[in-house]
Amino acid sequence: MESNTVHWASRRYLTQRYDELRTGYGQLPNDGRQADGYLYTTEAKRIFPRYNVVAAILIEVERLDPDHLPGIDVMTHVLLAAAESANSRFTTSTQDEVVADAIADERRLFAANVRRWLAQPDLSVGPLPYRRVLTPEESSAWRASLRQRWGVQDGCWHPLLAGDVPHDVLVLTGDSMWEDDGVDQVRRVLRELGRRRVVELSEDGADCLLDVEIFAPRYTGPEGLWSDEHHDWVAYASHEGTVAFGGALSTGLATTWPAVHSWRWPGWHGGA
What we know:
alpha+beta; 2 domains; seven-stranded antiparallel sheet; 8 helices; 42% helix
């Protein structure tokens, strides 16, 4: 079996499993809380620890570079090690027996799937877009670069910085990336610039290098910053319902997206 096959299978499984568990949790009454609105119900504790450990395992799996995967023996060791020991700040507090059992069971489930895939020499899995978790050194270097090149401050950019927004910074409403064809327009500009991959820096999560085809400058809970190896554009999605673009991406969107002006952010007080 090729290493990329089991790597794709792992990524696909973990992504789908995470979505499945989050959907299940979202269907719980009272957001999974007891009547006091504070403590979790037993049912909730059987679900949320699972998607937290799945997310931690996925990060470890995606630390592998899809362009330079190890041989199948090393790959197997990495995947099973991730199943056994991948952790995050959401998985390390397991004094609650229900939570601990849920995490342990989810670890066993992923490990069992890895072994099942490896036992199928004719396993066929469709390829996935490139996505790799950056090393801590890479993340630090990128954050320093965005601070120096674009004036990013503590992970924030326009319009959350003090002072007026520069005239060449395009600030749109956050809805522009969820409705209409905003994300498609952003990807189109980058493809026309010949860009293949984007760096994503997350306020709370894993920083990644990913294919432009899965780049989506949206606010999803953590704030996000994006750029690429040319350092000639930046994007920033904030908790204030804005998404801002600078450099080549700002220019490209402003000149080639006919509907862009209808999505311009009106400012804090609704001004033009």
